[in-house]
Each structure stands twice: as structure tokens, then as C-alpha cells.
Write the C-alpha cells for this entry.
Amino acid sequence: QVELVESGGGSVQPGGSLRLSCGGLGTISGLRAMGWFRRAPGQQLKFLASINVYGRTNYADSAKGRFTISRDDENTVNLQMNSLKSEDTGVYYCAATRYSDDVTRAEYWGRGTEVTVSS
């Protein structure tokens, strides 16, 4: 059983930065792609960014230019978030899949870490 655990959430003022991290626990091998999603208050889960085992990245328009996804190793993914806005507030989830680059179909999910952007 693979468990993903997110960390790094918190409160920050508009314009600030946060770095989220996600690590896999348990027996892990062959994770092809990992990614990040956000659920803003009262909204549906939205894709933010993904990275595959070859380092190829994909970003939602809302994340381009401000967020950077990186992968330390097969089991760890990070999301550097700069120039944060109030609309970035929400719960951030990590996801991982063994089967493709499409993390929207991920079979492994974390429980989320909360980010609040407010003055």
C-alpha cells in the first residue's frame, strides 16, 4: 500500500512563497508521474502541475510562471509556489501514478495540506 504524505502548508501573505513537499511511504517502485492539485473553498479539485519520471513537466495556466514542480527522487515531489495570491488558498493534494503521465487518473493520493493566503 502506497501512502503519500504532504507537508509545507501554512499561512502566508499575498506575494509570499511556500514550498510543498510530498513523499511516498511504504513499498514504492515504478511511480511514473506525480503531481499536485488544489481544492479551493467551495470549489472542485483542480489540477496544478505534474512531473514524470523523465522530468517532463506540465502546468495548469493558473500555475504557469509562479509555481515550479520538481522531483527529488522517484518517491518525492515538491511544489515551489511564488507570488501567491488569495485565490491560491485551499487544500493542496499530492497524487502519483504508476501507469501514465496523466495524474488526474492517479491511484495514489495524499490527505492534503492547507494553504492560506491572506493579509
About this structure: The chain has a mean pLDDT of 93. The longest strand covers residues 18-25. The chain is about 0% helix and 50% strand. The CA atoms of residues 9 and 115 lie 5 Å apart.
